[in-house]
Amino acid sequence: MTNTILEVERLGKSFGSHTALRNINFSVKQGEIISVLGPSGCGKSTLLQLIAGLQQPDEGEIRLRGITVASVSKLVAPEKRGINMVFQDYALWPHMTIYDNIAYGLRRQKVAAGAIREQIAELVALLHLEGLEDRLPPQLSGGQQQRVAIARALATRPDLLLLDEPLSNLDMRLRIEMRSEMAYLFRQLGTTVFHVTHDPDEAFAMADRLMIMRAGAVDQIDRPQICYDRPATLSAAMLLGAGNRLKSKLVRVGEHTTVRIAGQEIVGTLPGSPKVQATEQVDLLFRPDSAEWQPVPASSANQLPVHVLHSVFEGKRWRVLAKTSDGQPISFLHDEYLDAGEEGTLQINASDAFVYPQQSA
C-alpha cells in the first residue's frame, strides 16, 4: 500500500470578498515531488501557507500522514507538523556559521553532537559545501546560500519539504544548474517535496507530477509530459508556451477537430474534452516551434498564409513575428532571417495545435 504523506480535501480560503482558493483536492505520496505552477495571484502561495500552517482554511482540511493538521476548527502549529520550508530569500542567520545554520534544527531536537556532525558531513558532501562550514552566509554566493538553506531544511529529515520559489533570486545559469541538482538530490534521498514556482522549465525539471493553478482553482494535475502534450485548459496551454492564440470557427469535431481561420481549414486536437458545437467560435493555440515556415505553399494540408512583420534573433534561431491574412498576430521560429513583407505559409503540426472554447484567459 502506498504511503500518502499529504492529503488536501475540499480546501478553500478567502480574504474578505476575495476567494483565494476554492475546492482544492489532491494528495502527495511518499518520495513524490509535486510542482505547483501558475501565474501571480493564482493562489499557489496561499496554498503553500495553508500547508505550512501559516494560515487557517475557511473550508476543507489538510492531513499529514493521515492526521488532520488544519481545518475550520483545528490548526496545528507549523513546528509540530514535521515539515520544513525553503524560502526564495534563503532566510539564513547571518551571524551564524554555515555549520551552525545547518545544525540549528538538529540542536533544537536535542540530537547528540556526534550524530549532528555525521549528518552535517553527509549533507555538506551531497550539496557540495565542503570547506565552507566555518564561513558566514554573507561570504557565500547566492547559489551557495541556497544550498545551505536546503541542507538546513533536510537536516531534520522532515516528512514534507516545502519549496517557495526557491530559485527566483538566482541568475539564469544558476537556476538551470540548481534545479537539476535539487531534483537529483531529492530523489536520491527519497524526500517528499511540495514545490511552488511560476517557471515552467523549473517545474518540468523537478516534478513527478505537475499541478497547474488559475484563479484559485486547479486546472490540471498530471505528469509533466502529459500536461505539456495535452493541456486541459486554454490557460494551461498558454502557461506552457502555446503563445499563438487565433480566433477561429469550429467546422467539425471528431477524430480530428477542424477549425477555419482566415478562410483556411486547420486541423488540431481538442484536449480536456470541452463541450463545443460546430460553427462555434473557438481559440486555436500552438507553440512557436510547432509551425514550420514554407516560402512556397506545399500540397499538404494544415497550411496558414502569413505576412512577415519582423524577425528577432534569439541565439540559435530567429523568432519571426507575422500576421494572418485577417490580421491576427502570430509568431514562429526559423533558422534564417526573414525580411519584413515576405509572404509564405506556416505548416502547423496538428497534434500540437489545441482547440478550446473561446474565452478570456
Structure description:
The chain is of the alpha+beta class. The chain folds into two domains: 4-234, Rossmann fold; 235-357, Nucleic acid-binding proteins (OB fold (Dihydrolipoamide Acetyltransferase, E2P), Beta Barrel), CATH 2.40.50.140. It is 24% helix and 35% strand. It has eight helices and 20 strands. Strand 12 and strand 13 form a beta hairpin. Helix 2 (98-108) packs across helix 3 (113-126) and helix 3 (113-126) crosses helix 4. The two termini are 40 Å apart.
SSE map:
Elements (H helix, E strand, L loop, with lengths): L3 E12 L2 E12 L3 E5 L6 H9 L6 E6 L2 E4 L12 E4 L11 H11 L4 H14 L15 H14 L4 E5 L7 H18 L3 E5 L2 H7 L2 E6 L2 E6 L1 H6 L4 H6 L4 E9 L4 E5 L2 E5 L12 E6 L4 E4 L8 E11 L4 E7 L4 E6 L8 E6 L5 E4 L4
Parallel strand pairs: 3-8, 3-9, 6-7, 7-8
Antiparallel strand pairs: 1-2, 1-4, 4-5, 9-10, 11-12, 11-14, 12-13, 14-20, 15-19, 16-17, 16-19, 17-18
Helix pairs in contact: 2-3, 2-4, 3-4
How would you describe this structure in keywords?
OB fold (Dihydrolipoamide Acetyltransferase, E2P); Rossmann fold; single chain; 24% helix; 8 helices; 361 residues; alpha+beta; 35% strand
Short description:
This protein is of the alpha+beta class. Helices cover 24% and strands 35% of the residues.
